[in-house]
Write a structure and sequence with these properties.
The complex is a heterodimer.
Chain A: E1 4-6, H1 9-15, E2 21-27, H2 30-34, H3 39-51, E3 55-62, H4 68-76, H5 79-84, E4 87-91, H6 94-103, E5 108-110, E6 112-114, H7 146-149, E7 162-163, E8 166-167, E9 170-174, H8 176-186, H9 209-213
Chain B: H1 3-9, E1 13-18, H2 27-36, E2 42-45, H3 57-66, E3 71-76, H4 82-94, E4 99-103, H5 124-136, E5 152-157, H6 164-180, E6 184-189, H7 193-203, E7 210-214, H8 220-229, H9 237-245, H10 249-264, E8 270-273, H11 282-288
Helix pairs in contact in B: 4-5, 5-6, 9-10, 10-11
Chain lengths: 223, 291
């Protein structure tokens, strides 16, 4: 699941300046769950744009705009509406906008910003976060990730900025290193804290260039 | 004599912090250099303190060196990746800078460019390890250097950590820093000599020089602000009352700092005075402390 939020209205209008005819595309996947590009939001966007003097040549919600083959086949029936439009306003995440832009030869405007998940893999009730660092340190830290539990992502112990167990940046947030300390103490493993953790290989945190430049995970490639 | 041999002689060492200003006007730095030369053993130049963009520590260290002071080059991990950190350290060496203080650095979100991308490619312990590698003649991945530095590396510790976990973690990290190559420490500001004595007792076995942090109080507001917002700093109510009752606040602040320094003599290896804009008053503090 990818989280998105709608861009400010002024920004969207700015993208559409000088264009009169707009086709709106929503997504029934993550954008629908995020409340940013499902049927309700597409309908509302259509109303607001018409109020702003735009002609909506068509509006459609597709299950998963990230699937280019699906986007192409579903829009075939709407070819005229798409052709009549100056541009497409795509109400979904960054992947969806890129997929639509690649699938349809028409200017595509993003209506949403994709929000960082801060290491969570989707939304769920829990505090555990994983940054996919490629070099798991959880053995040394009592099963609490210092990269995500510490605001600075420090891996050799805390900074001097804790006050009454809280992070100096956010008095509501527990110091991750104090949580690690308490956990290890409880398990009689405080010696783990004495280990020098060598500088991380941060190249492992970058997506593999092959993964970025191929459509390994795109549905149409497995057809 | 530079900082390393001085600490070895056992002299009670005095270092003073110099905070570069925003801009290219170096008038004040030159004035401070004139006032501090011969009065302090080393000057410690902050690296964009509090994540506020300023003139760089390296350039100011160089200016101070030219004016006959022994600079301590503060290096934070906030703004530079491992390439830039190592390169700047080599640059410092060729400019004749012998002392380095390795710190993690405040988060950019606390400063005047909160939009900045924080780096933290290395942390303070790893940076100390890198400095040791450079001293041995290798970069951190093992490539041989042509010409190597001989840095005297320092680190920081917060003796006023206020929970058991925070305090023990400070001590564990301190040991890791020593193992990684720290040869001296300077501390967060000390106002309560008895509490600091307890900390010193705990770290006695580490056998490492410790310079206690001194921040002269300027006002009651400043004391209260630090108690509320600066982790590890505790100004006792008694000192706050003394400031409140004082007619000449500046003089009283200086006297309080001098009393703390007197109380610390014999307990630790020196003091590090962080005057925060009052650099020119450092000689007065030292005179009042009998140094």
């Amino acid at each position: 699941m990818i989280l998105s939020e709608q861009k400010p209205w002024e920004e969207i209008l700015d993208y559409l300046a000088g264009e009169n005819n707009v086709f709106i595309l929503g997504c029934n996947g993550c954008a629908q769950s995020s409340g940013t590009g499902g049927p309700l939001e597409v309908e509302e966007m259509k109303r607001k744009l018409e109020e702003a003097g735009k002609k909506i040549t068509g509006a459609m919600v597709i299950d998963f705009l990230c699937q280019k083959a699906l986007v192409k086949s579903r829009l075939r029936a709407r070819t005229q509406q798409v052709e009549d439009a100056d541009s497409i306003l795509v109400m979904t995440c960054g992947i969806g906008v890129q997929a639509v832009s690649a699938a349809i030869n028409k200017a595509c405007h993003p209506a949403c910003n994709t929000i960082s998940l801060g290491g969570s893999r989707g939304e769920w009730q829990g505090e555990e976060r994983c940054l996919e660092c490629g070099d798991c340190l959880l053995d040394y830290t009592g099963g609490i990730c210092p990269l995500t539990a510490c605001t600075k992502g420090l891996i050799n112990g805390p900074c001097g900025g804790t006050s009454r167990g809280k992070c100096e940046l956010d008095p509501e947030k527990d110091c991750g290193w104090e949580l690690i300390y308490e956990r290890l103490k409880q398990r009689n493993q405080l010696d783990k804290l004495r280990k020098f953790i060598a500088p991380k290989d941060y190249s492992k945190m970058m997506a593999n260039p092959k993964m970025l430049s191929t459509s390994r995970y795109a549905l149409e490639q497995s057809d | 004599m530079s900082l390393k041999p001085l600490l070895e002689t056992g002299k009670f060492v005095v270092t003073a912090e110099v905070g570069p200003l925003k801009g290219t006007d170096t008038t004040e730095i030159n004035e401070v250099a004139e006032l501090l030369r011969g009065k302090v053993d080393a000057t410690n130049v902050t690296d964009q303190q509090s994540s506020v963009m300023r003139l760089g520590s390296l350039a100011v260290c160089h200016l101070l060196k030219e004016r006959g002071l022994d600079p301590v080059f503060q290096v934070t991990c906030r703004d530079r990746n491992r390439l830039a950190l190592q390169s700047d350290l080599l640059s410092a060496c060729v400019l004749g800078i012998e002392n380095v203080l390795a710190i993690t650095g405040d988060l950019p979100s606390l400063g005047d460019h909160p939009q900045a991308k924080p780096v933290y490619d290395l942390d303070s312990v790893q940076l100390l390890w890198v400095i040791s590698r450079l001293n041995e003649g290798y970069d951190m991945v093992g490539n041989e250097l042509k010409g190597k530095p001989n840095f005297f590396a320092g680190a920081v510790v917060n003796p006023g950590a206020d929970t058991e976990a925070a305090f023990e973690l400070q001590l564990i990290k301190m040991e890791k820093k020593i193992a990684a190559g720290a040869r001296f420490f300077q501390t967060q500001a000390v106002y309560d000599v008895d509490t600091f004595a307890k900390f010193m007792k705990r770290v006695e076995g580490f056998k490492i020089p410790i310079l206690a942090g001194i921040i002269p109080l300027k006002s009651v507001g400043m004391a209260r602000f630090m108690n509320k917002n600066v982790a590890g700093v505790f100004v006792p109510e008694e000192l706050i009352n003394k400031m409140a009752a004082a007619e000449d606040k500046a003089r009283t602040g200086i006297e309080i700092a001098a009393d703390i320094i007197k109380g610390l003599r014999g307990m630790c290896h020196g003091v590090h005075i962080m005057a925060i804009g009052w650099e020119k008053k450092v000689p007065e503090v030292l005179a009042a402390a009998g140094l």
